[in-house]
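All the exercises in this workshop are built on plain-text protein records. Sequence and backbone structure share a record, each on its own labelled line. The structure tokens are whole numbers drawn from a learned vocabulary of backbone shapes. The record below serves as our worked example for the rest of this section.
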Amino acid sequence: MRLSRMFMPTLREAPSDAEVVSHRLMVRAGMIRKVAAGIYNILPLGLKAHSRVENIVREEMNRACAQEVFLPMVIPSELWRESGRWDLYGKELLRVKDRHNRDFCLGPTHEEVITDLVRGEVRSYRDLPLNLYQIQTKFRDEIRPRFGLMRGREFIMKDAYSFHATEEDAESEYRGMYDTYCRIFERCGLEFRPVEAETGTIGGSFSHEFMVLADTGEDAIATCDVCGYAANVERAEAGISVPAGPALNRDKKDLEMVHTPGLKTVDEVSGHLKIFPDRLIKTLIYSTDRENVVALVRGDHELNEAKLKRMLEAEWVGLADEETVRKVTGGPSGFSGPVGLKARIVADYAVESVSNGVTGANEADMHFINVNPGRDFHVDAVGDLKMVVEGDRCARCEGTLAVARGIEVGHIFKLGTKYSEAMGATFLDERGKKQPLIMGCYGIGIGRVVAATIEQSHDERGIVWPHPLSPFHVYIVPVNVKDDRLFDVAEDIYDGLNAAGLDVLLDDREERAGVKFNDADLIGIPVRITVSNKTLDKGGVEIKKRREGEASMIGIDEVTDKVKEYIDMA
């Protein structure tokens, strides 16, 4: 491609609303332009990077015997009502009406549509297994779209759905997709980690996220330095810890109420009473779709709402409002405690180890001291409810958990029969008995892969593409396009590299060499070739890898072989 013909409006400065590196560089490199909050035009350079990802995804999905389809983006509400998600999904689901006043939505995901398709065609176990995928535009009306393509409202996604007759076959496909995803992200040249994760609004029993490791990542992931265990912090488990210091005292003292005027937070109360925060039992009142619940965690821990939701088997959980807190406890927020409550109480494992602890007394400006679980209050259920932090002990071994940042680029789920049972998607088994289809689903955010790659691979000058995802392989810079001698050489190299199957960008603009070099670094093409009278006088051209600082001279007849060598080695 000749740069004079390419629509690539580069910028010296990033827009003021660009918060992360990928957003800034994609705008500056002329890859995207904003239309509305979370909605972007994808320009030629950006689309070429998208296409690189899509090609790798298609090759690996086809290799795994998945078949590509294309489903509608506009979905009738009837399908979502069948699954129960029309009301459950919330405001992220963009609902519209057609001219006949019928309800539709813009698809944020396609479980309902694919289940409807398959239930109309699959009759027997002989038609299974089946894995169908698409690469298509989705829309989720995010409350706060940000970070460019990292969290947009409209985005390109690969979503696949598999259907099975047995749990064993569904498990085999899940593991097969896990391996397929690993190959995809390895081929993209990314440093990534598969981690256990929550299933969220998609549902199902189990899932893995594929995280690109980057300091700017939105998600936190916990990893063990010994056994390799890895999970999103929403899902991550930690070994049971006991309180430090005086909290180990097992002599149970008499319960006592003390005055704590205006002291509500853990730091305020522990400081006033001169005790460690792990002596406190934090009492949180939650509302759910079923009931109001009292949740307890140790004072030095944070409650993990995803774990609470899973323990309660609830559709949703949220901190109760002041009115509900008073209804459940009889007192104001900030002074809640489990002693004397009639509501259902659930607790984190670590709460059981607290001895002579401190809780709110369900009365303004008052706390209980010398509180002991089992004696002073009863817990209805105990489980893992804490948010893991750096340094926690691993639940799987004696190792220590480290917490790193990551960007979710893929997610695979075991759906089970959640959608097939709700929508009547069945098949006849070997005995002629009707059974619900067992499902899995597998998503990759195409635009997120592009953005995450930039977050992971850039420097102060711009993007540094791994060669599998780079929009072009080579950037040719003739320093003076009006000099026929050097421009003819540049064109000959351009033609030769194109003939060799490489994707080449020839900067034939009438710009200063410095402008061309800056743009070459900004858009991050892996190999740059510079043609000047100085290099030609020495019998060759200059070749430079984007990842390296030093350039070298090579003969003109060596260019094609050397570039192919660089690309293969990158």
About this structure: The two ends are 22 Å apart (CA to CA). Residues 339 and 393 are 30 Å apart (CA to CA). The chain has 15 helices and 31 strands.
